[in-house]
């Protein structure tokens, strides 16, 4: 009986961990998307100023 409760707890912990990772990953990918757009804007302004772009 005690062992079953422990496995149930580990399953809950596993799911909460997965949910947390998914949430972090989702917000991270959203940040990358915004960063890509900002970087494109910055590249355009750098091009206008005549700076070399790597």
Quick rundown:
With 54 residues, the protein is an all-alpha fold.
Structure description:
The chain is an all-alpha fold. 89% of the residues lie in helices and 0% in strands. The chain is built from one helix and no strands. The longest helix has 48 residues, at 2-49. It is rod-shaped. The mean pLDDT is 79.
Please give a handful of descriptors for the protein shown.
54 residues; mainly alpha; 1 helix
pLDDT averaged over residues: 79
Helix content: over 70%
- Distance, first to last CA: 63 Å
Outline the low-pLDDT stretches. Answer: none
Number of strands: 0
- Shape label: rod-shaped
Helices and strands, in order, run as H
Oligomer: single chain
Number of helices: 1
Query: What profile does the largest beta sheet have?
Result: none
**Helix-strand category:** mainly alpha
Q: Could you tell me the strand content as a percent range?
A: under 5%
Rg: 22 Å
Keywords: Membrane, Transmembrane, Transmembrane helix
Protein name: ATP synthase CF0 B subunit (Plastid)
Organism: Iris pallida (Sweet iris)
Transmembrane segments: 7-28
């Amino acid at each position: 009986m005690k062992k079953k409760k422990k496995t149930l707890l580990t399953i809950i912990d596993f799911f909460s961990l997965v949910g947390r990772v998914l949430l972090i990953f989702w917000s991270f990918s959203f940040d990358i998307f915004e960063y890509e757009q900002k970087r494109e804007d910055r590249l355009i302004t750098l091009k206008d100023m005549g700076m070399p772009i790597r």
